[in-house]
Amino acid sequence: MTETGKNILYWVLIILGIAAPLSYPLFELLEVSFFTQISFSWYLLFMIVMGWTAKAIQK
């Protein structure tokens, strides 16, 4: 993966991390089930951890 690709991936992960708390009101609006919210949260957490790992590998 190129340096640019790694940076884009890193920023996408940061944006996802910031968007996660903001998405909860949206879930309330759409009346998404509680279990869907939980699995979505775990998925985002996993993505953020993967982002940190990718950033650590970069160094």
SSE order and pairing:
Blueprint (H helix, E strand, L loop, with lengths): L2 H28 L3 H25 L1
Helix pairs in contact: 1-2
Q: What is the mean predicted local confidence, pLDDT?
A: 76
If helices are DSSP runs of H or I spanning 4 or more residues, what is the number of helices? 2
Distance between the termini: 14 Å
Percent range for helical residues?
Answer: over 70%
Shape: elongated
Number of domains: 1
What share of residues are in beta strands?
Answer: under 5%
For the CA atoms, what is the radius of gyration? 14 Å
Structural class assignment: mainly alpha
What's the order of the H and E elements?
A: HH
Quantity of strands, as a count = 0
Sheet bearing the most strands, described?
A: none
What do you see in this structure?
The chain is 90% helix and 0% strand. With 59 residues, the chain is mainly alpha-helical. It has one domain. Helix 1 (3-30) runs antiparallel to helix 2. The model has no long low-confidence stretch (mean pLDDT 76).
Briefly summarize what is shown.
The chain has 59 residues and is mainly α.
Key words describing this protein structure:
90% helix, 59 residues, 2 helices, 0% strand, mainly alpha, elongated, single chain
